[in-house]
Every structure is written in C-alpha cells, then in structure tokens.
TrEMBL record:
Name of this chain's protein: HAD family hydrolase
Alphabetical UniProt keywords: Hydrolase
SUPFAM superfamilies: HAD-like
A Pfam family assignment: Hydrolase_3
Top-level taxon in the UniProt lineage: Bacteria
Gene Ontology cellular component list: cytosol
Any one GO molecular function term: phosphatase activity
Species for this entry: Sphingomonas chungangi
Endpoints of the signal sequence: none
Amino acid sequence: MSDRLIRLLVSDVDGTLVRHDKTLAEATIDAAKRLEHATVHMTLISARPPSGILPLAKALGLTAPLGAFNGGTLVMPSGDILTARHLSADASRKAYEVIRASGASLWVFADGKWFADDATNPHVPHEVKSAMVDPVLDGDWESLHGRIDKIVGVSDDKGLIAKLEADSKAAIGGDAEISCSQTYYCDITHPLANKGDGIVALCAAIGVSLEETAAIGDMPNDIPMLKRAGIAIAMGQAPVAVTTEADWVSASNDEDGVAKAIERILLPEVARHRL
C-alpha cells in the first residue's frame, strides 16, 4: 500500500490496457470513468505513436497529457504536441545500418508517419491496428534522419532480436534507448524516450509526484516506470521479471486486468486515504 493518496494512474497499452485483439473492453472504459470520478487522473504511456493512443484516450475520456514513443513525445488528448524528442541523425543512421545488416524488417516513425520496408511482414496488420495508420512503403529514408521518433527492427526470430538488441547497444551506446516492447520488436528511440524517464515527464506535466502515482504494465520495458511509481501493478500474464517488481499482480489483459486493478486496488486505496 502507498503512504500517499494516489492521484494518477499511468497505464501501458499493448498487453495491458487493450486485449490481445487490440480492442478496449467496456469494463475498462467504465473503470477509467470511475477513477476520474474519484478525482484520480489516468494517462497512457506506450511505444505507440500518438495516432495509436489518441483514439483510446478519447474512448476513456482522458484529459491529462499522454506519453507516446515510451514518453519521448508528450501529447495532449486534443492532439497538440507538448514535447517531442527525436533520435540524433548519427544515432538513427547507425540504427538503420545495424537493422539492415541483421535481416530484420525495418520500421521508421517520423513526421507523424510510419515507414516500412516490407508490406508482407506478418506484424504489419497488427501494427496497423496499433498505430492506427497505414505504412508508407520504402520512401526517402535518408531525408528522415534528425526527425525520427522511433526505429524498430521486426522479426519473429527471438535469437535474431536478442542479437539485434545487443548489436544496437554496442553500435549506438548511450545515444539511444534500446529495448524490446514485444518479443518481436527491438525499439530504438531517444535516450530519454523510456518509461522510467517517461513517467517522470508525465508526472511533471500533470503536477503529481511519483509517490502519488500508480503504474501498470506487462513487459520488461515497463519495469523502469514500475520501480518509480508509488504503487506498481503487473498484469497477470507478465513474465516473472516484471511481476517480481510489482506490489500487486492483476488479471491478464484478456481478463480486463486494468479494470480489475482500478476496482480492486486503486479505488479502495483512494477510499482508505480519504477516510
């Protein structure tokens, strides 16, 4: 239990807020509205671009700033960008070269668009649902350097992705944040575009302390924000590396774990502090 009144919930999206088929459950929408009614803000942080989180924020009735690209971009529910951190041109060129050499598919997010090199990759239909935009095939890659929000290496070969992550860290070093948002995605973003720094930026923008914040997620890239939050909640299907960092473990995303966390953990906590 937190020693402070919880005033903010920061939720991951894929594997957490939405179900496996990328849909948002009515139970989650209802729980989010109950949380806002209890004067607790809710926001989202995700590796998705703004286009992939704004419709969810609208459905949930959220009013606070949101964290796209793992917090590298802060955006209002209206779509207005507050801050945007881009990879340096040198870092993005190195990332491009490493991914090309690895054999993974290459995705680039820049200028509000998603650029892809292979329309046949099996993850393209899923990303269309997540990013809520269609890919631009190929394009002028060189002209994007200096404006890139995220570069992704995509492969179902777990060994390839593990090697890609290691090779990217060796090539780019501290000039980028390199992590896997899913077992098949190696994400490369600005050094501060990670969920640990992202939750700090969101709290500052909203005017809430970390101690007054709850965070919920399911993947290892969520661990930095779970460690910083006043209450850390893991999803039921999360790996052991994540659940061991949590104060609570909720149900899985297909069992509406965010809704259950709000109803069974956060709302009782808020009521306890207001007695």
